[in-house]
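Good morning C.,

I know you're traveling, so I'll keep this short. The sequence:
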Amino acid sequence: MHFMKEINVQELYTKMQDSNFESDSVVVDVRVPGEHKSERIASTINIPLNRLEEYKEELQKYTNVYVHCETGGRSGDACKKLQDMMLDNWVNVHGGIAAWKDENLPLLSSTHMSMQRQVMIAAGSLVLIGTILALLINMWIIGIAIFVGAGLVFAGVTNNCGLALVLQKMPWNR
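The tokens, ready to paste straight into the viewer:
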């Protein structure tokens, strides 16, 4: 097992201020394109976790590949993938873009909706619709709300959200 190399967001921000940073280092955002478009750290490149292997040749050119996501789950998975690809130049950005925001570090943002907001809207809508239909039509329809609620609990416990996986495949997130 390999030790997880990590850096906190403040340390990364300080390193990024060095004029030579981009000559040998890169910051990779492994979130889906829609999340990256929504808000991102300046000068990061977006390589979604599921496409990381396609970029091995490019990534091995750097001395340091700083990997981040929303909170650290996917970037940890990405670092394991990079390790499996026999790359040892990766560094996990602890806490991801959420920690970056907590430190009030500069972000680029647009009106595109983050994956977290999309999941909340979709899950909330399903629970609301399921509950209303159960009241109006048939109590068995309450199963929709129960299913979504159980999925949210599962996502919270495992840090894997099935609804996010479905939403990632939608055209607006490609």
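Safe travels,
E.
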